[in-house]
Fold these 3 entries.
Entry 1:
Amino acid sequence: MAKRRHVVITGGGRGIGAEIARRFAKLGDRITVLARTREEVEKIADEVGGYGVRCDVGEPASVEAAFMAAGPVDVLINNAGVARSSPVLKTDVRVWEEHLKVNLTGAFLCSLKVLPGMVSRGNGRIINVASVAGLKGYPYLAAYCASKHGLIGLTRALGAEFAEKGVTVNAVCPGYVESPLLQHAIQNIVDKTGRDEEEVRMDLANRNPQHRFLDAEEIAAMCVFLASEEARGINGQAISVCGGEINV
């Protein structure tokens, strides 16, 4: 019988994070969901029979408290993220700092809390949910692109540093995924341009060669694979799940 792992998912209260929690729970793993909103974490934790902890991943004290409560971690999914669009010349420094704080510093802080235990046990998996925006540039997304490029750099650095310790660190890079984050981005475009919502949705979907948005289940499935023993040879990689939007 496979060992029951402890899987921690940040930003696990909805969208991709919630689906990742569901997928690992179906495997019999013990789940801890972290998110800033208590109602979201408690709802998903109850659904998967796991544990919900309120946590702001960009705040060191909040991360410290959350991981002390969580205990030893076998698999960490750094999924918490923000995405706001604006022309770079109209991007406020506070928006820039928010993206770096949540999307990059949050993954760094959470990884620091689990790595010592993983190294001592000689086994562990860290999976960072990045984006195709971490592999190429997109207009009006300078802050988001910079933070996700940084996250992939962190992934590669940690993968190299801990490769001999039985720990793998990889990034999953989704294209547009049907999720609350996507809906927020669509609404932002509608509000700023006055375009029809359906027109905006079609425009974004058509950037995928398959002419569709991805499902959260597809991202969750890749995370499950990367956390498996079969994927132990995959390390320091940024894996695109985007229908062929980019090829690296």
Note: The chain has a mean pLDDT of 93.
Entry 2:
Amino acid sequence: MGLSEKVDTNKNKNNILFVYLTMTDQEQIQYLANEVKNLKEQNSSLMGMFDMTTGYLEKLKKNLEVSEKKLSKANKNLIDSITYAKHIQDAFIVNTAYLQRLIPQSFIFQKPKDIVSGDFVWVAEQNDALFLGVGDCTGHGVPGAMLSIFVVSMLNQIVQQQKNTSPAHILGLLDQLIESNLARYNETIRDSVEVALIAYNKNTKQITFSGAKRPLVVITNGQSTVYKGARVVLGTEERRIEPISQQIIELSPNTSCYLFSDGFADQFGQETDSRFSNKKLLQLLEKIATLPPDKQAEELQNAFVSWKGEKTQTDDVVVVGLSFQ
């Protein structure tokens, strides 16, 4: 039997070692030489595959680096654009400094989910009335911000053009303007807004409140009263459950008023994975109501950050507090 026949036969029997031991010295040398040759060929083939794979990975790495640079540049351009958009939105939205010039004992705690916000604060003056509204537009980020600018523009237009500027009438007109303007060219648009709106009469020292889904909280000597807004979401016929009404509130000494979006109450907490809730927010407002305005804003900031922890912010947040006394 020849060498190859011996090897093949015994490979089938998985007994190569036995065959090797039965070979002559010359056969063993030849066998080992063949094995070395086979190993060299295998190694050469593997090295070729390695070089080819390395080359492919290097090319892939370079392509990824180029893509990363492009994405980084695109992201920077996007952030720059949104940041500039915030400057535009800030020109429409009232800030704390402006509000405190009109109402010294006041504050705005605002925390957008993104750079720009769908929540807004609006202020206007007409004769002896001071109007203040807090709104929560559909969504957040750029879409919410665009809608907030539109709503603020509509509110300014209403106050400037209408003789009847009761809060309920203003919200009714705003409801019509949102629906008619946003659906004029696109019937699929269903954007909407929730608003809490007050009118403060400087002579009578009364507040007239009207709300669309958003409430007004009035706290006197630590006791709170919640005035609920109508079950209406402005701009959408499907969610007009009841008529928009208004209430007149007599202000007394040591009274604070709060208007806010739903972002604070809806924020999930890190420890409990549950929402902060309207109940906890009301308790917090009762606790801080006697503090100076800036301190109240600080306490809200601390409570929100502590509750949220490492959780992602759920929505835009705005809380406005004020005292007319």
Note: Residues 76 and 123 are 34 Å apart (CA to CA).
Entry 3:
Amino acid sequence: MTSLIFTVATDIYRIYSEEKDKNYCPQHLPQSALILFQRFKKAYESKNIKELKDCISSDFRGDIYGKNQADLIKFMTYNFQFLKYGFSPHLIIEVFNICSSSDSEFSTVINMKANLQFFGITTPVNWDRGKLLCEAKPEGKYSYWRITKIMKFKE
């Protein structure tokens, strides 16, 4: 019985690790966008509002979770507070199409899927999901990339 439990746990960990690696290193993304999405994913999954806010431009606009940065952060703070100890969101960002990419801006159609995790194990419970148009640009003295727009994708 112990051997079976160990085998199942090992298989779950292997599948999770392969999924995590696949989502962290998509080869077709520009380095700046990849780093931004990794920062966003890390902040989202750790429910770190300060880091999440740092991924969002002060000029943010959108039609999900609020129209500006303050609305978006307020919405995320409110939702993260409902997650009890041991629960966290697990985010997957799938890139469908890169619309534009340069040193001064980036836009892409993405699918964001978030499921709930319980002590690191991803459950089938959907937390959030949707196909979105995402835009980003470098800001400030050090050209730190931030998300400037997230809109529902309309086909």
Note: The two ends are 51 Å apart (CA to CA).
